[in-house]
Structure formats: C-alpha cells, structure tokens
Design brief:
heterotrimer; A alpha/beta; B alpha/beta; C mainly alpha; A: alpha/beta; C: mainly alpha; 11 helices
Chain lengths: 321, 340, 301
Amino acid sequence: MTPLLSVKNVTKTFPAGRGKNGKKARVHAVNNISFDIYPGETFSVVGESGCGKSTTGRLVDHLLVPDSGEIWFDGCDISKLSDKEMRPIRKDIQMIFQDPNGSLNPRMRVEDLVAEPLLIHTDMSPAERMKVAHELLQVVGLGAKHAHRFPHEFSGGQRQRIGIARALTVRPKLIIADEPVSSLDVSIQAQVLNLMQQLQRDYELTYMFISHDLSVVEMISDRIAVMYLGSIVELADKKELYAHPRHPYTKALLSAVPIPDPTVQKDHALLEGDIPSTIDLPVGCPFQTRCPRCQADCKLKPIEPVDVGGGHMVACLHMEE
Amino acid sequence: MSEKEILLDVRDLCTVFQVGKRKTVTAVNGISFQVGAGEILGLVGESGCGKSVTSLSVMQLLKNTSGRVVSGQILLKGKDLLHCTEKEMRAVRGKEISMIFQEPMSSLNPSMRIEAQMVEAIRLHTDMDKKAARDHALTMMRKVGIANPETTIRSYPHQLSGGMSQRVMIAMAMSCDPTVLIADEPTTALDVTIQAQILQLMRQIRDNNNTGILLITHDLGVVAEMCSRVIVMYAGRIVEEAPVQELFAAPKHPYTQGLIASVPKLGSGVTSLPSIPGSVPDLSMMPAGCKFAPRCSKACDRCHQTEPPLYRLKDGRQSRCWLAESEAVQPAEEKEEQIG
Amino acid sequence: MSENNNSVNSASSAYMDDPVLQNRSRAREFFKKFCQRKTAVVAGCFIILLIVLAIIGPSIAPYDPDVYDYSNMRAAPSLQHLMGTDEFGRDVFSRLLAGTRLSLGSALAAVLVGAALGTILGILAGYYGGILESLVMRGSDVLFAMPDILLCIAIVAIIGPGLINVIIAVTVFTIPSFARVMRSATLTVRGSLHVEVARSLGCPDSRILWKHIFPGTVQAMIVNFTMRIGSAILAASSLSFLGFGADVGAPEWGAMLSSGRNFIGVADHLILFPGLLIFLTVLAFNLFGDGLRDTLDPKIK
C-alpha cells in the first residue's frame, strides 16, 4: 500500500536569540524524522512537552516549513510549496486543535465557523453550505438548533465537537488532531474519542493523532511513534509497542503512567538526570543524560533507527531485549 | 482511620460566589471530611466541581475573590480556622498547613531568586537568622531531591524546569514542617516521567513526617497510586466517599462508576470506552433533585425531584444516591450529632 | 452518506440533548457593565445631547446666529440672551448651538478619515510585518515626536488656513495613533489560535485580515476613536483660535473664543461659555472613552 503521507528526514529549527558563546542559537525542535502514514489508519505521535510533536503536526499541515527534508502528501511534495500553491491541498488536510476555546473565532456563529472550509474550497451557494454545516453539527451531536449560537455559549467538549465538524465539512483525507482531548474532562474525553473513532469508520478518515497521554493513544491508535527531544526514538504497532517496548525511554514513559487501579502494584523505573536544553542538544542519542543503559558509544554520533522486525523501528544501540 | 489522630476536620463547609449584585452561586455545598495523620486523602472531580474552591476555603485564600465561606467549620487540630483573624491565619498558613499549586512556575515570584523566596518563607514562621534559614532551605531542597541545591538556590524561577520548580515549591511548603499539606493538582502541569518523581516525593514526605495530605486531582490514576481514601465531588457536593480499593472495585454512585469506566487504562487494550453523556451543569442553572440525574442512566422520577442525602454505608463509605438507601447504615446527616 | 447519517445519528443521540449554556447576549452584558460606570454614562448622555444639538441645533436656536444687533452689543447674560451677546450683538447661545455642527463635525470628519487610514496601515503593518511595518511605524514615530498642535500649525502653514485644511491637519496627526494601536491589536489577534486555524483551513490573506483579524481589533479602534475625538476638537478649536481655521465670523467654538479674548475683563461671558463648552465636550469624550476601554478590556489601563 502506498502511504498517504510520507515524512522524509525532516528537520526544523527556530531562532532562539543568542547562545552562551554569542553565536546565534537555534532551538532544534525536530531532528531528522521520517515516518509514513497509510490511508485509513490512526498514526499517533506521543512524547512529553517540548519533544517536537506539535511542531511535527504543524510541519505536516504546512503551517511551518521544514529547514530540510521532504513531506510527501498524496504523491506531491508539499514541503516546498508556497502558501498559495498549498491552498488547494488544504482541502485534504484538516486540523483539530488542543484548545477548542482559542481555535474558534469568538466573533463568528457556529454555523459560519463550520461552513468556513466550504466557503474557501468549494463554490457552493450559501444555502447549500448551511445545509452541510447543519448536517455535520447533527453528526457530531450538537443539533442544528445551536447553529446560530456563538462559541462562548458552549462547553469545552461541545466546542471540540464544533472543531471536529468543521474539519469534516470538506471530507479531508487526513486529519491532524493535536492533543484534541487534553483540555477536556475525563468523562467528556471519552465522548470525543468515541466520536472520532465513529467518524473514522463512517468517513474513512486517516488520523495523525498527537498526544502526551499514553493511555488515550493506546486506545485510539494503530501505529505509534514515540518522540524525545525532536527525534523519533521508537515507532511500532500499538500492540507491539505496549507489550514489548525496546527503547529505554519508551519503557520509562510507560512505567511512569499511573494506572487507575489500586490493586496493580507498580514499581516505577524513575528517571534520573536532567533533560538537556533543545538549544544545545548532546551529540549522539538525545536520551543519554537520563538513560540507565547509556554507554560511551551512545555519545559519539546520531543514532539511526533500525528495524527490529515487523516495522518496529528503534533508535538505540543498547536496546532492551 | 479512627485510631489515627485527625488533623484536619472540615464540617459542612459551604462556599458561595457573588456573580451579580444580588445573585450568588454555591460552589461548595455542605462538604465534610477528615484528614488523619500520615494519610493521603484524595479529592477527585472534574473541572468546576468545587474541589479547588474547597482547598482555597480551607486555606482562607478567598479574600481577593468574590467568594466567601458562609457556613461550616474548618478544624485544624481542634482550632476553627473560620474564626481566626487574617493575622492568626498568616501564622497558621505555611507553618501548620501548607499548599502547593498546579502551576509551579506561576506560583513563584519571577523577579526574586529562589533563595530570597525560601528564606523569606522560612523566616516568617521561625526566628532563624538569614544564615540559618538559608542552611535550612538547602537542607529542605536536598530532602526533596534537588541534586545541586547550591546552584539551584541562586537561580531565578524561569531558569528552572517545571519539575524542578514544583520541587522547590514542595521544599518551601514543607520547610516549616506543616502537619497538613494541601496539594491542588500538583502534577497536572508536569510530564508523566516528572509526575512519577513528584508523586514518589510526596509519598516519602508522608512516610517521614507523618503529614496528612489532601490531594486534589482529576486523574484517577494518581488517586489509585497515592491515596488511602477518596472523596468524589460533583457539582459542589460529595457524591461518594470510600477507601481507595473499594472505590475502584465497586463504586456505588453512578457518577463514580461512569468516571472510572471512562478512563482509558494503559495496557488494557480496549479500543472504545463507555462515556458519560452530557456535560457538567453550570453552577447558575443547577437541575432540581439529584445534580447528576440528567446524565445518569439509572435516574428515575424521584432523582429528578428530590436530591438524595449522603447515605452512610458500611466500611466508612458514603454515597449520595437513592440507590444506596437500602444499604444505608444511617443517613449521613446524623453523623454531625454523633460526633458532637 | 445517507445510511451513514442514520447510524451516526443514533450513536450520537447520547449527547444530543446537551444543555447549551443560556443565550448570553454580549451586547446586553456589555451595556449592563457599562452602566455601572456612572461618569462614563453621564459623559455618554452629554455626547448624545451634543450630537442631537449638532443635528437640530440651528433650528431650535432662538436667534439667527449671524444677524448683527448693534443695539445690543456685549450684553451680559439675561433672560432674552441666555449667554449674552457678542461684540456684534449676536446671541452667544444661538451661535454655540450653530457651532456644534461645525466643531463636532470637523473633528468627527478628521478622526473618521484618520481612523480609516490609520487602521488600514496599522493592520497591514501588523499582519505582514517586514519593510511595510518598519515604514509605517518609523513614520508614526516621526509624527509622534512632534507636539500635536505644532504639527497641525506646520501643516496648515504649508497648505493654508481654512476649515477643510484644519480637518486635513487633524487627520494627519490622528493617523499615527491609530496605526500604532491597530498594529499592536493586530499582533495580538494574529498570534491567537483561531487565526492559525484559519491559515490551516486555507483562508486567503484577505479573508484572514477582514474576517478573522479585523473584528478582534474593533474594540481597540472604538476606544481609540472616542479618545481621539476629544483631542481633535481641541486641536481644531486651537487652530481656529489661532486664526488658522474657520472664518473669524463663523460660529466655530475656537473662533468664538478667539474673538472673545479681546474682551476679557469687559465681557467675560464671551470666552466663558465657548471655553466651558469646549472643556466639557473634550472631557466628556475622554471620560466616555475611558469607560468604554475599562468595560471592553479591563486589562489595559
């Protein structure tokens, strides 16, 4: 199967004022990452804050342009396109954001918000647009009777559903969901996740799901990439990753998640050491400062990910067996 | 629980917020709980359920908001904090009861070095001189696992990571050896690997100092790992109280049941979750009857008309649901008289 | 799609009946909050009165403002002439009524044009940045470096006196203030998430600017607008007072003040009433603007 999205050796840095030695410093947000997303799957990117997962999402959505590398979407390298050339392709890539509050223009009515992608990408008449918008509000469980309200009149979960409805109007091929449930309460979180899965089946959607919550990711994903300090350290099928994590960081991450079951006694493998600054990344493995298995050769050159079987990629020289 | 010394005893606390000239909303409605020595009591609920208001009420930190405590008692080792003057409260805060907040970064003054802030906090409650207070600060920082306190104490808050600032906050909160620590979502802003460290640290503090900890969180995973007893709040009320094992094994209240079911469990391999329909009611338009009834799958006519009392069940459990009526040892409302 | 719809609908019916928060009308909420600021409300009433007078003033004036009455020169305020008469016997009250249209109108026109130009420049500068931003902002800095009234005098000195030229002069010194305010407002809104969303949806720049950024800056613009009217009235009156503006004979407030100043000590009411009116009008616009600002955005003070 040909991938819908192919990210090849993408690197992105941001200027960060001047470093200690007076030279212009740069934040290394994303470092030489590669992955493919296949049609119909849910591909998740997990990692802690500052690991570059949101930057990755914005690179794929062309809100940021990579310093180097290629991003192939549907047979076309979008990384070199100008904003204007990108515009028609945006119909096929839609994004759902973490903060349902800020992502909806507070001065627009819900129906106009939901219909906006149609206005930009199709030549439908206003009446047709409203019809589609109302239908989709219905689909996400809001009902057309709320369509003329403003976003501030809705709760967080309802706003996130508005965001989802808007992403769906143009029938995109890929939906990038950047922490779509992180700001929601647990009971609402489950509603939104269930809705997203339901829609994936009904509309044959492909998701790129960005999250820090390993439990949520486990529920919704097919394949998962674990990021640490701008690099993908491990990439595998969901079952494989949770059952046999090979990278020490993945292992530590999994063991740190509190389990909502007091009968499970866990011994947390607590990480020691400091997280290096993304301005002066260490040479070699990014995890070397906190890794319990770190050896001298980890600090020499960048670690290339290797396939340990079945598409399970691990970037570690001394991985767990 | 009964053999332990009760440190903090909150009885029938009500806190209201002024929203208009004459309009008020009740954010916390008749909450009672006890925190014993060496115990971690969990206070769980979703946003807007009144769990943070409860902690601010206990600390008497509502002065600069439109909220005020209208009734109830807050007994800290037998002394009612509600009858304390602001000056007396200042002596209590930090010394006998401390609080750590969700945002460690914004809880520290960005324009002061850690040193100045910690020394100031320590000298408020002790008669140490500057040198002694600084040494004490360094000891505390070492105790909370800060590797090189000599450099850390010279830094400004923005130079520290989130986990490090939360450690500093805990060191500061623990510096006068308070008997009760209130932790309001202490790890919500932190990454999981850092969260695990901070939770570990809080357990150590409990073991070493026999501190009573009130842990406020929305994360059932944290509750399951940390707490011995749990109170579940919904819409400003306690809907259920139980020892942690029993709560997760057999939740009594439909809200607790829904809440526990809707949390994805790591390693369980499920791909879909049961969810609670609807959303939390707005404080200004509460339904009549049981506040959870509109979202409850087991609700009957009675639930929509009359609000159930908080029934007292066996094993020190409580549940605010008509379904628990048959198991009730006695209505919880009578508890007051029993204690008094 | 149709069969999908059915299944989806049944699945989502669980949260179909979510109560949506009550319909809070922003306008009503704003009005309620604004009404709590008593001074601003009083100022607002005064401004409304002024506007009404500007419209119907000449028709309710008891005397023709331009008719000379040599038998009744510099008469003190009396029942016949509420505010007395000037050196040519014209009724001061009627002249002030007639002048409302002139003074308020010229200030309003100047600020309107200035606001439009300044807003466009400011939004474009804020959104696109780069050379355009540098040009606009440095230009504003240069104009800002000069005192308002000196700048006006300089402009009028170049293009000549007259009411239209006064309006042009006031417009020129209004532009930079709007450019600055609107640029910073644009920068704030541009950084907000919903603008990034608009970009990710593929909105063309024109739509982002007009639909997503401009509405977010309107508050700042309205507040600045009311504040600038006060200073525009002051500047226009000052220019007329100095003889650069309206005809000496026109019932413009500044011009009336100017001709009245020859009679200080002889007929104080000739400067008292126009002066008082200018003072009250400027004060009202400033207080009204303060009230608006505090209600719309309590954060900026």
